[in-house]
Structure formats: structure tokens, C-alpha cells
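Continuing the batch. This is chain 6 of the set; chains 1 through 5 are on the previous pages. Same settings as before, nothing changed between runs. Recording input and output for traceability.
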Amino acid sequence: MTVSIENSQLTATINSKGAELISLRKNSDNREYIWNAHPAFWGKHAPVLFPIVGTLKDNQYVFNDKTYSLLRHGFARDYEFELISNSATEVVFSLKANAETLRVYPFDFELQLIYKLEENALIVGYKVINKTTATMPFSIGGHPAFALPKTFDNYSLLFEFQETLKQYSLKHDLLSEVTIPIELEHKKLPLNYRLFENDAMVFKSMKSKKITILENEHSLLNFHYKDFENFGIWTKPGAAFICLEPWLGYSDTTNHNGNIIQKEAIQKLAPQSQFNGQFQIEIF
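Output for chain 6:
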């Protein structure tokens, strides 16, 4: 099932499977801002990453001395979400723990995805509810892929601040101790496919909390992510998209012991409490 919301400037469409944003169009010219999920490159649009972000060592983790298996980025993107509210400009989807999820993630949770249009922006909200009497470890993140119809080198990323980024290199999909300094050019990172020869660019922290996609030096959209400490940037060489990925959490480090409570950047949600966070896509 797909649901669309619309205001005077934008139209957004969300698929109930994974509560995934599959389209964001500007009404004035019908331009599409979300990648079309062409299977030759990557068959997703903007999946939600939960209850882990990235890859676990051996695709496993340990909790209370028991070993569980979870594949890359978790399971939420593969489940049908329930539509729990819908208005002209806002829609809310929910995924609750079930027998299948409890086998791989032993927590009674509810995950809500909230999509809301305000003027020229789409706000994407995450609500994680811990219904258990124990602390619940989790990670969550976005993976929106933005369509880049022109040749890739026509695009660059403009960061909020001039800074030297510290990229953490991946080794077998895990975070290594090898870091690469990324020097911005007047706050800009020109895009080229060489940046992604070793998969995603992963940053544990950045001063900037806003990134602008520039198309031939013209602003295409602003991406705001103040609620997220970690960040990924990714594409497939040859593909016409760029993913801007706000995260709370990331892949296991190469030396991680497997205990999910001791995992770097894991979130720990108190019993009977909830987490709320959001990012925003502002269209020019």
C-alpha cells in the first residue's frame, strides 16, 4: 500500500512496506527528488535502519549471554507497517514487535515513522518506544537516496561549517581504526565515484548538522539532521543518486567483542520510555 501527502509545494509518497519514502516531488515542476530504486544499482529508495545500523561482526550479537543473528541494517525495512493516522499533510506508520522480531531482537518495542509536510520541507520523524521493563539497546538511521539526473561530477555537498572531516574506513563492512581526513573546499565536497570505491563514507561525528546538495553550484535541497550524531554518505559507482544517512549508531568495529550493550554508539532506551528524533528535507 502507498500513501501520499500533499501541500501547496510538495507531494510525498510512502510505501507501507518498511514505511519507506518512495517519492518526493515539487508540485511546480514535478521534479522527483528521490532515487527510482533501479535494481541494476540499488533497489531501495529510503529505507529505515532499525534496530541496528550497518553490519554486526559475523552478523551476530550477544545479549544476556545469548547469541542472536541480525543482518545488515536490521529488519524494519522488510516489514509491513500499520497505518495509524493519515491527514492531508501528515501520515504515521507503526511497526510493533512480533514473534519473528522477538527471535532476533528480544525486546517489546514499537517503531513509528512520521512524515509531515511543512511549506517546502518534508520532516521525517522516528519514535522508538520501549515497552519492556529492561533497558533496550538500539540503533536507528535514515538512508534516503536523492536522485541526481545530471552527470555525477555536476554535484557537490555544501556543509554547514568549514571543517576537516574524519572518515572511518570499512574493512569487511566493519569499522576499522584507519581514518582518512577529508578537507572541504570552502565548505564543499565535490562528488566523484572514487570517494566510494570502498563503500560508504562513515563519520562518527561532524560539526555540521546541515548539508546542501548543489547541482552545478545551485542549491537543490537542504538536509537537516541535528538529532543524529553519526553520518554516512554513499552511492554505487555509476549510479545517479547520493545517499545522505543520519545515524545513531554504526557498524561494529573490527575489535568489538559482540556484546550489544558494549557496542560503540549503541543507544540505551530506559524501560517504558521513548526516543524521538527527526531529519528534514528542504526543497528549493
